[in-house]
């Protein structure tokens, strides 16, 4: 039995289902600063989908917890699948876009969040080695390329 099988208690492979928010305002993106293994990293507001929670509700909950913002997503950006070999974990990330008209003041409710920052694409690229994963920049670049899908693409039957 391999490590992935052992972690999930059976032979069925189960990646971690997560959500992430690309929050955009006039050329700036909202990132959270957090500690991961003692290192400061930057990420989009993101987190795991909980049992009996639909994907869009999970996104709104994570955004509220990590930034204090209660917003509705404007559209769906995409699904991202990636592997963290150092953790032997796989993630399936559902990413939403929130296009806002002002850089709202943030008030993180999650103790793991150090601060929230509104940063330009260039500022985020300059922090490339401090990003929690390559997905942070991938999502922003997909947004900048005009990629989007309607929210109706995501359906839940809970």
CATH architecture: Alpha-Beta Complex
**H/E element sequence:** HEEEEHEEEHH
| Structure summary, number of beta strands | 7
How much β-strand is present in the residues? Answer: 35-45%
Q: According to CATH, what is the topology?
A: Nucleoside Triphosphate Pyrophosphohydrolase
Q: Stretches where pLDDT falls below 50 for ≥5 residues?
A: none
Distance between the termini: 32 Å
| Overall number of structural domains | 1
Q: Which structural category fits the helices and strands?
A: alpha+beta
Distinct helical segment count: 4
What is Rg? Answer: 16 Å
At the fourth CATH level, what is the homologous superfamily? Nucleoside Triphosphate Pyrophosphohydrolase
Overall pLDDT level: 92
CATH class: Alpha Beta
Helical proportion, percent range: 10-25%
- Spatial shape: globular
Describe the main β-sheet briefly.
7 strands, mixed
Protein name: Phosphatase NudJ
Enzyme class: hydrolase
Pfam families: NUDIX (PF00293)
Family: Belongs to the Nudix hydrolase family. NudJ subfamily.
Describe how the helices and strands are arranged.
Elements: H1 3-8, E1 16-25, E2 28-36, E3 39-43, E4 46-48, H2 55-67, E5 75-84, E6 89-99, E7 113-120, H3 121-126, H4 134-144
Parallel strand pairs: 1-6
Antiparallel strand pairs: 1-2, 1-4, 2-3, 2-7, 5-6
């Amino acid at each position: 039995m391999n490590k992935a099988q052992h972690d999930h208690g059976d032979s069925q492979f189960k990646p971690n289902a997560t959500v992430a928010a690309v929050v955009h305002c006039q050329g700036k993106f909202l990132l959270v600063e957090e500690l991961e293994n003692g290192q400061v990293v930057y990420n989009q507001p993101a987190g795991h989908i909980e049992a009996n929670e639909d994907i869009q509700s999970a996104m709104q909950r994570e955004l509220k917890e990590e930034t204090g913002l209660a917003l509705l997503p404007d559209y769906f950006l995409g699904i991202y699948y990636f592997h963290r070999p150092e953790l032997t974990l796989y993630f399936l990330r559902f990413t939403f876009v929130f296009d806002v008209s002002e850089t709202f003041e943030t008030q993180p409710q999650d103790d793991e969040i150090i601060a929230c920052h509104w940063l330009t694409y260039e500022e985020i690229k300059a922090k490339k080695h401090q990003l929690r994963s390559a997905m942070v920049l991938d999502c922003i670049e997909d947004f900048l390329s005009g990629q989007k899908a309607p929210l109706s693409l995501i359906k839940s039957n809970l």
